[in-house]
Write a structure and sequence with these properties.
homodimer; 120 residues; mainly alpha; Arc Repressor Mutant, subunit A; three-stranded antiparallel beta sheet; 4 helices; globular; DNA-binding; PadR family transcriptional regulator (chains A, B)
DNA sequence: CGCTATACTCTCTTAGAGAATATATTCTCG
DNA sequence: CGAGAATATATTCTCTAAGAGAGTATAGCG
């Protein structure tokens, strides 16, 4: 039992959901941290607003793709208000499937001449 | 004047919009053809419904990313009901920018260990 | 006191899902 | 051959889901 659902049943993920899961794939993080990290990584191009972020998190939580992490950083580096999340096993597989799907999209873009060829 | 807008102002594109533009990047196509082609390329994983497709087309059209093409296939291969579209120059640049953005996402996914490394 | 960090909620608008409408052509079967 | 089914094609409508943006709340820090 437990999880017999096919990761592909969850695809395609929205861009926001994928960004959140990508951040969590590096390890547990808290909501505000995800917000900052996505903005940093995308050079400010993708900006998660609180309404967008927290609702995305709660949807992913309900879908069983992420869960709250109990382990917390050492107290001197922590802030007790934070709520940490991490990907579930299913979540990681879904994120991987979505990454493969997007890889194919990018390859089509390359084939269509929208990108530089892989190696000149 | 004409087009002085930065392609990045249009990002991020939704997945549907990107799929449509990716199809048109191969050359002009008509609505129904795009629908079939996206479904084929994605092995049925992404299914464009009429309501989704035609509204996406009309949004992209209003935004100046695609335009109607006058050239049509030879009459014996044509169907006069069809309406052909093709990317504008701006549209092609926007699609390319989106493709680069998505390339970066996929690279993050790889760095996070969600995908097989580039070359074993 | 005002700023930053943090979480959460509310409303408004946009986008996608899915079904329905319309019509011409082509295919199939009695 | 002719009727009816299926296909090709475009468009519209309503319902739901998702993102935008602003606002609320609170604690700590300089």
């Amino acid at each position: 039992m437990s999880q017999k659902r096919d990761p592909r049943d969850f695809l395609p993920l929205t861009d926001v959901a994928f960004q959140v899961m990508l951040t969590l794939a590096d390890g547990p993080a808290h909501g505000y941290g995800v917000m900052i990290e996505v903005e940093r990584r995308t050079d400010g191009a993708v900006k998660l607003r609180p309404g967008t972020l927290y609702r995305a998190i709660s949807r992913l939580h309900e879908a069983g793709l992420l869960e709250e992490a109990e382990e917390r950083p050492a107290p001197e580096a922590d802030d007790e208000r934070r709520r940490y999340y991490r990907l579930t096993d299913l979540g990681r597989r879904v994120a991987a499937a979505e990454a493969r799907r997007r890889t194919r999209e990018v390859e089509w873009a390359r084939d269509a001449g929208l990108l530089q060829p892989k190696r000149a």
